[in-house]
Each structure stands twice: as C-alpha cells, then as structure tokens.
Write a structure and sequence with these properties.
2 domains; 158 residues; mainly alpha; binds protoporphyrin IX containing FE
Length: 158
Amino acid sequence: MTDDFRGRRLVYGLVLFFITLSGFAQMPVFARYYISDIPGLGWLAQFYVTHVIHYIMASLLLALGAYAGMDAFLGRKLSPARQNPVNKGRLTRTGWVKLISLAGLIVTGGVMVVKNLSGVYFSHNLIILLDLLHLLLCMVLLGATLYAGIRKRPWIVL
Ligand code: HEM
C-alpha cells in the first residue's frame, strides 16, 4: 500500500519531537539533571534558545494543521479503487484524542504567548492553570501517540 501521508508524517514527527524537547527545556529540567552537560547539548539549558525553538515549532505545527485541515475539508483525490467503505477516512479514537489534545495545546499555548508579551499581565492563578493544563495536554498527547505507535493505530480509518 502506498503511504499518501509520508511527507506530513515526517514533518509532524520532527515538529512533535522538537516542540516537546523545547517545551520540557523551559521547565527547566535539562540543566537540573545534567543532560545539558553532555557535549553538544548545552543549548538545552539556554532558556531563550529553547523558547525560540518552541515558538518556531508552534508556527510549523499551526501551518501543518492548516494544511491537513484544508486537505481533509476540501477532500483528497483518491483512485476509484480506494473510494468506498463506510468509515474510511474518519478519525480513529486515538486520532480524536490526539486531535483534541493538540487543539488544547494550541489554545493554552496561544494564550501563554499573549501572556508573554510585554505589558500584558495575567493573575498568578491563571498562569499556573494555563501551565498545568498545557503540561497535562502534552502528557495526554504523548501518551496517546505512544499507545497508537505500539498498537499501530493510524490517525484515520484506512
Ligand atoms: C501552537 C502550539 C503551542 C504554543 C503556542 C506553545 C506555547 C508555549 C509557551 C508560551 C510556553 C511557555 C510557558 C511560559 O511562558 O512559562 C510553553 C511551555 C511548554 N510547552 Fe508549549 N506550546 C505549543 C504546543 C506545545 C506542544 C504540542 C507540546 C508538547 C507536546 C508543548 C509542550 C510544552 C511544555 C512541556 C512546556 C513547559 C511546561 C509548561 O510551561 O506548561 N507545547 N508552550
């Protein structure tokens, strides 16, 4: 079977890896556990470097999401032999969990970007809530991604 999604799968995998790495770097955990002492990994302990990486990856994620969303909405061109079964093309359960957690990450992340602008002030409680929600959603996404990987669950019913 040919894989119609090879390109975006690769881009998504790279974006997910680097956005998670740069997100955890901001907590910050890599200096605390001496991971950034490993030669070549010193940048993991530099807050602004990982912060910018997180923002760049977030932009790429939004671009990829817009592309995939448009593609799903406007319809893919399929060869006649591949158009038919009832549920084909629908999101699987793991697909839904991943999509909803990604949407939540984009919303909470987007609000935190606004919070980080100079001159914008949020209450401490709201910031803590956003941080915890963002982290919780990150764990849900990574958990669902791991499960889908192990059990070979695709995003959509093939
Ligand atoms: C459009 C998407 C996203 C945006 C705009 C965004 C934005 C942000 C921002 C601004 C912070 C720093 C919070 C602060 O200022 O203290 C942050 C932290 C973090 N991000 Fe994201 N993020 C996005 C997606 C993701 C994704 C997909 C993941 C992982 C799967 C992720 C994982 C993390 C983690 C682990 C942290 C550190 C913990 C925390 O502060 O909650 N982010 N993100």
